[in-house]
Design goal:
Length: about 475
């Protein structure tokens, strides 16, 4: 009887807005921290995985967005193991560095010959360029211990600072300046480094050095992907989080006027015209009708797991004491996937010299990279004449240009993404905690955008939400991992 009299706190109700790798990981970590003391709603009107997506070409699926994972990415590695997902590794492929007119380097199939060619052009920089990301990673992996021990950070700068002072400094200087400080030559930066940055972020070494180094880590020879598609991780995270998936689009998050520390989330069916839009278009009836299918729901905390920028944010934040301003913009990237036969001469190659991957060292070209793709399942690394090719470009590639690149096209798909932030050196890195109980996971993308970075952001905001709910800065703390002797 006595036990019945003890008042128990009701479960926390938390909204996660966005079903990409970050949002699904946040739901997973919330469930891990709160156990049965939480009810999670995850809002995602489109597919689970967000920028992790596959495209179907001739009955096979191909990665269309985030495609590679680094061997040191512990969260992604652990998720794959826990969910029984296997790794696939890239095929060993030929590569060329293209300036629009000519190739400054093309690989052969003999590793020693390639090293000699690269060494003749770039000297020891070739070797050192592989070592430099590894050195930064030594500091980066400290985040796993800090997060295991329950440390959480209200802003991105503090998270970087907890790993090392140097990481924060790197976000304030260009990749060029940082690498010059390390003694790299201008030629190495304008060719080798440029090609990795163009391929991974469609940007130049003017981007800040921390994300520049992530892009260089993205040229590691031991990268992997998830068999069946990287989006499989997001799907499994959602399943294991026990969150309710709401196929609705969120238009507004408001601080509750009646109950302190509560939030109202306004959402509508994905295909509905937003009321204001409908009214503006003079569709009075539509406006009335849509109003009726709108829903509001109260929450104790809200995690925004979607990019917020001044120019593209569709979610309004209202009734907060402070005015939020989100600066910067995301880089538009066009992904064109073609199944067909390439015309090598259109890429300044002889008929018998077609390369599997063309990386660019001239940022003014029509494309950022042009490469042969293997399906996400059962890759065979074949080199048949009819292949599937993926082109990343800053703008849509016109049909007549595709007809020049390909002598025959069986299938062509194009997707436009706002893929990652446009990086500079004077960017404010942003806050994870916008107000107590309101969190922005994607702030971490201003330090660097990659699957593992989103998962780190997810763990951080889940910890912040847990500490806030428990009203205890030590909540979620675990004893330190014992250092190996
Ligand atoms: C600070 C350093 C050197 C590394 C941090 C660890 C990390 C986040 C490594 C990721 C490397 C990687 C796979 C980069 C690819 S760039 C993003 C790309 N566009 C994609 O996701 O496909």
């Amino acid at each position: 009887q006595l036990l019945h009299d003890i008042p128990t706190k009701p479960a926390a109700r938390i909204a996660v807005i966005g079903g990409g790798i970050g949002g699904t990981a946040a739901a997973y970590f919330l469930h891990d921290l709160f156990g049965d003391e939480v009810l999670i709603d995850l809002y995602e009107p489109d597919h689970i995985g967000g920028r992790l997506a596959t495209l179907s070409v001739a009955g096979q699926e191909y990665e269309a967005g985030g495609s590679v994972i680094h061997p040191a990415n512990q969260y992604m590695k652990n998720f794959a193991a826990q969910f029984g997902l296997s790794h696939t590794t890239p095929c060993s492929e030929s590569v060329g560095l293209f300036n629009g007119e000519d190739y400054v380097f093309t690989s052969s199939n003999i590793a020693l010959v390639d090293f000699a060619k690269l060494f003749l052009r770039y000297g020891w920089d070739v070797y050192r360029l592989q070592k430099v990301p590894a050195a930064v990673l030594q500091d980066f992996i400290k985040i796993y211990k800090l997060q295991h021990e329950g440390q959480a950070f209200k802003d991105v700068a503090s998270l970087l600072l907890a790993m090392s002072k140097e990481m924060l400094r790197m976000t304030q200087m260009s990749t060029t300046d940082w690498l010059m400080e390390q003694g790299f030559s201008p030629l190495t930066i304008s060719e080798l480094v440029m090609s990795a940055l163009q391929c991974n972020y469609g940007q130049t070494p003017e981007m800040h050095a921390f994300v520049g180094l992530i892009a260089l880590a993205g040229a590691d020879s031991n990268l992997w992907s998830v068999e069946g598609g990287n989006k499989r991780v997001a799907e499994e995270l959602l399943k294991h989080s026990r969150a309710s998936l709401l196929r609705r689009r969120v238009a507004q998050v408001a601080h509750s006027t009646s109950t302190p520390r509560k939030f109202m989330v306004w959402s509508h069916e994905p295909d509905e015209p937003v009321e204001a839009e409908a009214a503006a278009m003079g569709q009075k009836d539509a406006a009335q009708e849509t109003k009726e299918t709108w829903r509001e729901q109260e929450y104790d905390a809200v995690i925004l797991a979607t990019p917020l920028t001044q120019d593209s944010t569709k979610i309004q934040l209202v009734n907060f004491t402070q005015q939020f301003s989100f600066s910067g913009h995301y880089e538009p990237i066009e992904t064109t996937i073609v199944r067909g036969v390439v015309r090598p001469e259109s890429l300044m190659l002889n008929d018998d010299e077609m390369l599997d991957n063309i990386l660019v060292i001239n940022p003014r070209l029509m494309f950022n990279s042009f490469g042969r793709q293997q399906p996400v399942k059962g890759r065979k690394c074949d080199q048949e004449a009819v292949g599937v090719w993926k082109i990343f470009s800053p703008h849509k590639i016109p049909e007549d240009l595709l007809d020049i690149f390909f002598q025959r096209r069986e299938v062509t798909h194009a997707i436009s993404w706002l893929a990652y932030p446009h990086y500079s050196t004077n960017q404010t890195l942003g806050d994870f905690e916008l107000a107590p109980g309101l969190y922005h996971l994607n702030a971490i993308e201003w330090a660097g955008s990659a699957m593992e970075m989103s998962v780190i952001g997810a763990k951080n905001v889940a910890l912040l939400a847990y500490k806030q709910w428990k009203n205890d800065p030590d909540a979620g703390k675990k004893p330190p991992i014992k250092e190996e002797l």
